[in-house]
Amino acid sequence: MTEFKIDLLFPGQSQEVGPPQPVMAMVGDDIVLPCQLETPVDAVSMTMEWGRPDLDPRFVYVWHDGQELLVEQNKAYKGRASLSINKLKHGDLSLTLSKVNISDNGIYRCYIPKLSEEHLVELLVGVASSPSISLSGLDRNKGLVVLKCNSTGWYPEPEVLWLDGEGNLLSAGPTETVRGPDDLYTVSSRVTVEKRHSNSFTCRVQQNHINQTRETHIHVPDDFFEVQSSSSSTTAGLAVSLAVCILVILILGFFVWKFSESEINISYF
């Protein structure tokens, strides 16, 4: 009987409304989805629905005849959705969601059939993680250092930027992105740097939609940028060649001595 009442009251019809109001949150937050009647009347005795059209069942929370109606509530929201009776008295139908997660992302519809009034809210739940920087390689011939930045556990997909000690953007290679089975993104990026005034470099990972930025700094010692000059290489090569020649001469001298000693022993006998 209750199921029939819900389907009858909320047939899914909608009036023309404006774009959804954005609400941003981080995983684990308790958040409020706003819904205020255009005329602030007492709504305690009214019937209203919070729903998500992309879910089945679509009901996130239903209020009817002064109480919660949880028969057809989507299981994902059981125990996590609530209204304030005190706010209902002033026409505030805002929904509180506790411990939001990635699967809560979507467009929510606040619908009051008696007033043929509805409001849309778009919830964007994000996750952010601090990056780490490691030394990826050295080019001694050119005095260059390759740095790698890695950050695991982002949503939505972030972008990676490299900056020098003065805050100038550095030209880096393409960002590598992997999306895991938990829908979280892992990003990594490499940049090749040369010696600078401070030798300080920053990897910044940011997601503008959820207004989140994380960054990590690294200082590279001067000796990492030392260039192995051609004269040094030539000197080193000559030293090795000389050492080999000396070794060969010593070995030959040893065999000549042994051979001479053998001839002396034979002559004696």
UniProtKB/TrEMBL annotation:
It comes from the Eukaryota. It holds the Pfam family V-set. GO terms for molecular function: signaling receptor binding. Keywords: Disulfide bond, Glycoprotein, Immunoglobulin domain, Membrane, Signal, Transmembrane, Transmembrane helix. Its main location: membrane. SMART domains: IG. One of its GO terms (cellular component) is external side of plasma membrane. PROSITE patterns: IG_LIKE (PS50835). The chain crosses the membrane at residues 236-257. The keyword Disulfide bond applies. Gene3D superfamilies: Immunoglobulins (2.60.40.10). The keyword Repressor does not apply. Belongs to the SKINT family. This is Butyrophilin subfamily 3 member A2-like. It comes from Sparus aurata.
